[in-house]
Amino acid sequence: MDMKGKRVPILVQEQGLGRGDQPITAAANLVAYRSGGDWSTTYAPSPFYITSSMKCLYLEGHDHSVFDLTMYNRVQIQIYGTSMQGRILHGCSPTELIEQYTGTIGRMPELPKWILSGAVVGMQGGTESVKHVWGQLKKYNVPISAFWLQDWVGQRKTSIGSQLWWNWEVDTIHYPGWRQLVEELHSNGILTMTYCNPCLVPTNEKENTKRNLFEEANKLGLFVQNKYGSTYMISNTTFNVGMLDLTNPAARSWFKGILHEMVNTGVKGWMADFGEGLPLDACLFSGEDPISAHNRYPSLWAEVNREFVEEWKAKQQRNPRKVETEKEGLVEEQLVFFMRAGFRDTPKWATLFWEGDQMTSWQRNDGIKSAIVGLLSSGLSGFTLNHSDIGGYCAVDLPFSPYRRSEELLLRWMEMNSFTTIFRTHEGNSPSANKQFYSNDRTLSHFARFAKVYKAWEFFRIQLVKEAASKGLPVVRHLFLHYPHDKHVQKLTFQQFLVGSEVLVVPVVDKGRNQVKAYFPAGEDWQHIWTGRIFSPPMSSGMEAWIYAPLGYPAVFVKVGSLIGTTFMQNLLDLGVSTRFPPPAEDN
pTM for the complete prediction? Predict the structure, then answer.
C-alpha cells in the first residue's frame, strides 16, 4: 500500500507466478524470462495516487509511465510518449478525493441483487457433476445465487493443468442437455454464468464443434495483425491464439453476436478474462501506437462487453422478463460480467472485477495476503466492486515445495471472502491437486456456514453497492479512508480491512494460527460478533488486542450502537449460524 521509496511502472501485464515469493518466482523465471513477475506486476495498474497529506494526482491518456517515488520531497513521472496530461485534485480527506476522481473517470454501475444474494458456485466437470454438487449443497442449505461453469466450452489438458477450448460455444458432449440444466437451475432461483475472452483458438483438433470461430474471424480479418500483415498468433501455455482487434468496429460487432448467442441459452453472466496481452509490436486496424493501445485494450474489452449488456438490457426493457421463484420472489435478470485486466478508466465500463490468478499459498506477494492488498489498493483507485477466487487459483507441483491448496487455506479464504462483494469459488488450474469446497463434510459445512455469513449482511452490501455507484467508494476499504491521520493505520497492508465503515474484519492469513492482532482506531467502540466483547480504545490513540480466532470464528467486529451491526448479528442467528464460541486453545 505504501509505495514511497519505489519506482512504480504503470503497464498492464500478466502478474506472473509468485511476484517475488519464493521458490515459485525463481522457478517460473527459469522456464520463461520474467514470467515470475515481481511486486509491481499487475493486470490492472492505474496512473493515480493519494498521499497521507491528501495530495492527489492522475494522468490522462494510456501511455506507459513510471512514477518515481524514491525522493522524499517530490514525485517524478516518466512517460513514454510525446506529451503528458493529467489532473491534480484537491480535497480534505481520502473519501472526498476518491469521489472527485471517480466522478471524472467514471464509476462502476450498481450490481443486480441476484449476484449479491448468495454464493457463486464455481465448478467444472459437466452436467452430471453440476447436478451432483448442487444436490450436496441443498443438503447443507447453502444460499446460492449462481453456478459459474467456465468449462461450458469443453476442456483440454495443457502444461499448466486443465484449460478451456477458446471457442465460445457450448460443448454439448461435456454438457449434454445444457439448456435444460440452465432452465432447471433457473426455476430454482439460481442463474448460470460462463466464461469467454477476446482470443480464439483453432479448433481443428476439437470434436463436437458447430462453429470454428477462429476461422470465421480470421477470414473476416478481425484479429490483431503482425508486421507482415497476417494474424498475430500469440502463445498461451502450449497453444497459440488469435486476439480480436477491438479497435476494429467490425470485430466489436461480430463478438457481440457471439455474446448474444451465449446469452440466448439462458446465461446471465460471464468471466470476461484476459485483456492484458496485446503485443507491443502489433499492427492495429486504427493505426494507433500499439504501446499506448496496450494499456487501452482492457478498457476496449470492457466497453464491448458493457455495450452488449446495455443493448440486451434495452431490449428486455421493451419486453420485460421477470422470473417468479419460490424463495426470492421477483428476480431482475440484469447481466453481469467480471474482469481482471484494467486501467484508469476501465471501471467506467466493467460491471465487476476479480483479482486474477493468485497462488494457492499463504505467501505475501501472490497468495492470500496479496488478495487483500489488491482488494484495498484497487478500491482506492475506483475499482469499487472486486473480489478474489476463494482458495486462490495457481497450483504448481514444484519438486520438494509443491503449491497446492490445503484445506486450511481454503477454509480461511472462505472466511475472508464472505466479507467481500462477491463470494465465489474456483477449482483452480489443477482441480485434483486442490482441496475443494465439496471435498468432504468439513469443507461443505464451512462453505455453507460462510455462505450464510455472506447472506447475513446482504442488506448492507446492497447499500454499499449503491454508494459505490453514486460516490465511487469501494465496498471493502482500507482503514485509511476513514482514519487517514492515524499513523498506525497508514502502515497497515493485509492485516485488516473495513466493510463500509461499520464492520471491521481481521482475517487469519497465516498457516496454523488461531489468533490475530487487531487494531482499533481512536474514538470508536467495537463489538466482537461472536462473544459480544466491547473494545474501547482511548479517545487520544488507538489500541491493539490479540483476538482468538479459531476456524469458523474469524475476528469480526461491528461498531457499537450501529444499526447495521445489530441487524447483521440478528441475521446470523436467523440463518442458523452458530455463535457459540469455542474455548481458547494454545496458538501454534
Answer: 0.96
